[in-house]
Automatic annotation (TrEMBL):
Record-linked SMART domains: S_TKc
Similarity field: Belongs to the protein kinase superfamily. CAMK Ser/Thr protein kinase family.
UniProtKB keywords: ATP-binding, Kinase, Nucleotide-binding, Serine/threonine-protein kinase, Transferase
Identification of the protein by name: Ribosomal protein S6 kinase alpha-3-like
Domain of life: Eukaryota
């Protein structure tokens, strides 16, 4: 995101499934961002992109500029630190009011909480930039910070349920139904919209 090749490019769909390792080392250097299908270069006029392209759990509460990717990464960091999706962020996305105290946050360092709160600032002008995130003490001094093991009591239950659902889906004997693209609900709605707009 801070590469010169990617200058003024907004990914617009940062989420766990779009962040991958290129090898099995588990090193931070082998992490890559993928799926640039929604990525767009910012225009000079106002620097905002208004076409909605996102995954609901990770979407920023404003038009798209570089700050929206920081918001998405903040949601991702929130999720990684607490071990679960940030429902309270989704419930309070417009106001930017969320709690970093109690529960799982008791074992999260003050530096990590500071970074999350600055990445999830509701005002995009006050949100950290990618460069500021990389210079934040939680990133630059990570070897000196306390290390805690994430302890989710419900994690085994969630994993077991997800695995059972995946197994069931893979073992269904229902053949996939493939139809022409024009038969899809979206294509039909777009066709109706064209008919309506040309009739005016």
């Amino acid at each position: 995101m801070v590469s010169k090749r990617m200058d003024r490019v907004v990914h617009r769909d940062l989420k766990p499934s779009n962040i991958l390792y290129v090898d099995e080392s588990g090193n931070a250097e082998s992490i890559r961002i993928c799926d640039f299908g929604f990525a767009k270069q910012l225009r000079a006029e106002n620097g905002l992109l208004m076409t909605p392209c996102y995954t609901a759990n990770f979407v920023a509460p404003e038009g798209y500029d570089a700050a929206c990717d920081i918001w998405s990464l903040g949601v991702l960091l929130y999720t990684m630190l607490t071990g679960g999706p940030p429902e309270e962020i989704l419930a309070r996305i417009g106001s930017g009011k969320f709690s970093l105290t109690g529960g799982y946050w008791n074992s999260v360092s003050a530096e990590a909480k500071d970074l999350v709160s600055k990445m999830l600032h509701v005002d995009p002008h006050r949100r950290l930039t990618a460069g500021q995130v990389l210079r934040h003490p939680w990133v630059t001094h990570r070897d000196q910070l306390p290390k805690y093991t994430l302890n989710r009591q419900d994690a085994p239950h969630l994993v077991k349920g997800a695995m059972a659902a995946t197994y069931s889906a893979l073992n269904r004997n229902v053949p996939p139904v493939l139809e022409p693209v024009g038969c899809s609900t979206l294509a039909q709605r777009r066709g109706m919209k064209k008919i309506t707009s040309t009739a005016l």
